[in-house]
Amino acid sequence: MSARELWRRAVVHWPRKLAAIGLGFIMWAFVSTTETTIAQRSLLVPIEVEGIAADLVPIGVPEVAEVTVSGPGPRLDRLRPESIEAVLDLSGLAGDFAAPVRVSPPQGVVLERVTPAEVLGILERVASREVPVTVVHLGAAPTDAKLISHAEPATVTVRGRGARLERVVQALVAVDPAREETEAAPFPADASGRPVDEVTVIPAQVRVRTTAEALLVRREVPLRLLPLVVGGVSDVQASHERVPLVGPPSQLEPLQEVVGAIALPTERPEPGRYTLPVNVATPTGVSLLEDVTVSVRYDEPGADP
């Protein structure tokens, strides 16, 4: 192909070709600039504590560190806190300490600063002891019943710093009384039932079995004797003015009195003093705790009216 022919083809539709070349250059410049733009970004990264002895606990360590990094904009936009490590190494330390927060950013990202760069704190010794498990029922007991719950295990281990551990006297576990058996997490509490934080309970779950037992109470109520319908009987003396009863609270609490009927002999006895039983009427489920009698005197023989 001759030079003339090449020139002719090059100049044909030259405005379109020039526009295409210009558009390609603009796109190349935009991509190149975007990829090479350096930006900064700050993230809150959880601090991982390492090197602590089993009987020590760190006090004053923040949960997160503010980490500022720089790098290509698109890479920083995709960066997540879990992509960065922030480690506080307390190996070999005890008591008061000052330790740096070591941050490891991912490849291609530059660490600018860490806040805090150094942590001031205390390593306190922890202890453990046994406390009883106390079951708390969420809701009222069934009518005329009491709830009895047993936790397994009956005691748990509480572990924490000395000052806080001294406040713990029990591990409370709250359960639904409608469930006969359940598992629940106990929490450390003081004598008033208030939770004590920063104390660990071992094991984290206990099994609770709950049963409802019939509730019986004792109460004394006045006795009202029905009048005798026979003649020739005088000086009636009851053994009780008030009688002891036992039964469910719903039956005993509203009871104002009980009525007693003297059990007369089938044949009239000779004149003299006699002790006769008294039949006391009680509500269903209520029992008389003591026998009730009356002492009566028959004055003279006679027929019943």
Give a quick rundown of the structure.
The protein has 305 residues and is mainly beta. It has five helices and 21 strands.
What does this structure look like?
The protein is mainly β and 305 residues long. It has 4 domains: 3-36; 39-116, RNA Polymerase Alpha Subunit, Chain A, domain 2 (Beta Complex); 128-214, Beta Complex (RNA Polymerase Alpha Subunit, Chain A, domain 2), CATH 2.170.120.40; 217-298, RNA Polymerase Alpha Subunit, Chain A, domain 2 (Beta Complex). 15% of the residues lie in helices and 50% in strands. The chain has 5 helices and 21 strands. It has helices at residues 3-11, 14-36, 73-77, 162-165, 249-252; strands spanning 38-50, 56-59, 64-72, 85-89, 95-104, 110-115, 118-137, 145-152, 155-161, 170-175, 181-184, 187-189, 199-202, 206-214, 217-225, 233-238, 242-247, 258-262, 272-281, 287-288, 293-298. Strands 1, 2, 3, 4, 5, 6, 7, 9, 10, 12 and 13 form an 11-stranded mixed beta sheet that branches. The longest helix has 23 residues, at 14-36. It is elongated.
Topology diagram in text:
Elements: H1 3-11, H2 14-36, E1 38-50, E2 56-59, E3 64-72, H3 73-77, E4 85-89, E5 95-104, E6 110-115, E7 118-137, E8 145-152, E9 155-161, H4 162-165, E10 170-175, E11 181-184, E12 187-189, E13 199-202, E14 206-214, E15 217-225, E16 233-238, E17 242-247, H5 249-252, E18 258-262, E19 272-281, E20 287-288, E21 293-298
Parallel strand pairs: 1-4, 7-10, 15-18
Antiparallel strand pairs: 1-3, 2-7, 3-6, 4-5, 5-7, 7-9, 8-14, 9-13, 10-12, 11-14, 15-17, 16-21, 17-20, 18-19, 19-21
